[in-house]
Write a structure and sequence with these properties.
Blueprint (H helix, E strand, L loop, with lengths): L1 H20 L2 H9 L3 H4 E10 L6 E13 L3 E3 L1 H10 L3 H17 L6 E5 L8 H13 L7 E5 L1 H5 L2 H12 L4 E7 L5 H7 L4 E4 L1 H5 L4 H16 L3 E4 L5 H10 L3 E2 L10 H7 L6 H6 L3
Parallel strand pairs: 2-4, 4-5, 5-6, 6-7, 7-8
Antiparallel strand pairs: 1-2, 1-9, 2-3
Helix pairs in contact: 2-4, 5-6
Bound molecules: ligand C2E and magnesium ion (MG) (3 copies).
Length: 285
């Protein structure tokens, strides 16, 4: 009917409008005028050790969340590349790391925090020194901080990236290679970088349903063990994936099956009372 086709055209128009709004230009304009401290938040997603049936949260990954007054919610895989391209990533990383440290300060000492570094952060001395001084000023033990980096971060300039990693490791921070397996030279970097862990990309975790996928996962796990690297399976979405991964010997997981990324206060409230720092120190029931 005419009505339906009008509705269809309207939907199409608004989808197109939406696309245009969210296109590089609009995002760039909104980001450039953004009040980063007010508009950016970090959400926390638990990473759990679940060899047995009771999963324990060992760390959280800090994930950037931007609510723009003009565009609404914009996803990090949209605005991070724009921030990199427009030279805003230093300010963004600094803001997000500050918020992540503030969140970490409220968490029990047994929980660590993983922070994503952009490809541009490791090659910017200003950023590296800024991260170091934020760690120094913070009350959290540096051993509770893990930086996640991708192969692209390292590929930009291996020598500088490696030097930055060594600088940041000096106070006791750890490093994890994120989205492992999706780059073109994972294996090359694995033995050349001073890192502590790998995070296997969700695309491999999805493959756990097939025999070939399981063979690949088993091989990656064996490799990580022989290199004494911790190994996190990312993007675990259901119980059958979890069971299959456990059968292969995986014990550390992250994904919607366990928890979604959530505001720090909500994460804190989800912890058992014994692990809640505030309740413990105030002695309230
Ligand atoms: P990432 O570091 O690999 O983070 C994991 C992404 O997978 C997150 O998406 C998370 O919400 C999502 N995820 C977690 N569990 C599941 C699952 O079970 N299924 C599915 N389908 N997805 C799952 P998010 O938050 O949209 O972030 C996307 C990417 O943006 C991140 O990938 C990271 O590369 C980048 N990013 C996020 N926050 C920051 C940040 O503060 N700084 C920088 N430089 N990059 C960030
Ligand atoms: Mg990550
Ligand atoms: Mg990842
Ligand atoms: Mg990613």
């Amino acid at each position: 009917s005419l009505k339906a086709s009008r509705r269809g055209a309207a939907a199409l128009y608004s989808a197109e409008h939406e696309l245009r709004l969210r296109s590089g230009h609009a995002v760039e304009a909104a980001l450039q005028t953004a009040d980063l401290a007010a508009e950016m938040e970090v959400h926390l997603q638990p990473i759990v050790q679940a060899a047995a049936d009771a999963p324990t949260v060992i760390s959280v990954e800090a994930l950037a969340r931007w609510t723009s007054p003009t565009l609404g919610r914009v996803r990090p895989d949209v605005f991070i590349p724009v921030a990199e391209r427009t030279g805003m990533i230093h300010r963004l990383t600094t803001t997000l790391f500050g918020k992540s440290l503030a969140a970490l300060e409220t968490l029990p000492d047994t929980i660590r925090l993983s922070f994503n570094l952009s490809a541009h952060d490791l090659t910017n001395p200003k950023t590296v020194l800024g991260l170091l001084s934020a760690i120094r000023r913070s009350s959290v033990a540096p051993s509770r901080i893990i930086f996640e980096l991708t192969e692209t971060a390292v590929m930009r300039d291996f020598a500088i990236a490696e030097a930055s990693i060594r600088l940041l490791r000096a106070p006791g921070v750890s490093f994890a290679l994120d989205d492992f397996g999706t780059g073109h030279s994972s294996l090359n970097y694995l033995h050349r970088l001073p890192i502590d862990a790998i995070k296997i990309d969700r695309s491999f975790v999805t493959g756990v349903a097939d025999e070939a996928g399981r063979t690949l996962l088993a091989a990656i796990l064996a490799l990580s063990r022989s290199m004494k690297l911790a190994c996190v399976a990312e993007g675990v979405e259901d119980a059958s994936q979890l069971a299959a991964l456990r059968d292969l010997g995986f014990d550390t997981f992250q994904g919607y099956h366990f928890a979604m990324p959530m505001p720090p206060a909500q994460f804190l409230a989800s912890l058992p009372a014994s692990a809640d720092k505030d309740r413990r120190t105030t002695g309230a029931a």
